[in-house]
Amino acid sequence: MVTAPRHDHAAFASVTSMDQAEGKEGAGGEREIRTLEDKVERLFWQAAAAERLLDGVLRRMGVDQAAITHVHQAQSMDLVHGIGAANLVHEWLTGESLWSQYEDSMCGRYAITAAPSDLRALFGTSNPLVNFDPNYNAAPTQALPVVRLHPKEGTRHLDLLQWGLVPSWADPANRGPQPTNARAETLLEKPMFKQPFQRGQRCLIPMNAFYEWKKLGNTKQPYAFALRGREPFAVAGLWEWKKLAGNEVLRSFTVITGKPNELVQDVHDRMPMILPESAWSTWLGEIPNAMPDSVLKTLPAELMQAWKVDVKVGSVKNNSPDLLEPLPE
Q1: What's domain 104-324's architecture?
Q2: The predicted structure's pLDDT at residue 83
């Protein structure tokens, strides 16, 4: 368990005073202050986790414990510098800043409602059928269906993997960042993604729809995006495995995103990389000497449709068919 570092709540009072000085008094200002306090609180938790990540990276670089302790002591003298150092490590590994945790996620929810038997037939998987219920609000940390080549058999398998990539070299006590998305443009530049890509640990993530949120002033309107015929589709992803205590193995995945098409860009500036069936074999590595990254292309807008859905999809507690129902215009 990650323990949040102690912090002085007087800092919150200082931030609150500054916020009010900018003319944000009243009920609206109080809500903004509470939101800001919540973000600061979460940032302290992120700093604690990132500190452990930094510790692990320094160990792998061969830095001795005395030097590591000195680094942490220097960090504790100045929290801002500590967060800055942790952020550099996080950004080097994933291509995303720690601060992006508090911005809109690229693809953080989707729906997979197709039956396991239908997915087995669609993707031609050969392993014993895994059972799972329709998921109308798939979210990070959940175990979700993924199609991948079995490392030993070389055949397609449909398995349940955790959403949020955990690299094989992660510290078992603290797994560090678990990115749910990877940018197609920098896939081969970031160690966390480059390694599984080059090892052939590429996968297909079945979806029936994905959700994105459009900013409308102080509110956000969720939209669902799907293919014209509402049939299941495959999104490019990467998968990893990590040995845990005993003989337990954690298998995880991340969704690859890229530039949006004309339909999605009105709502969000990123979208999942949907692969046509003709690209599945290339991406999975079934075709020798093929260039897997060459198939990472934005799906044309004319092949998709979008509609407004209820804000209930914003809570993972809600998971029912009505989440995909279009709102009346």
Answers
A1: Alpha-Beta Complex (3.90)
A2: 46
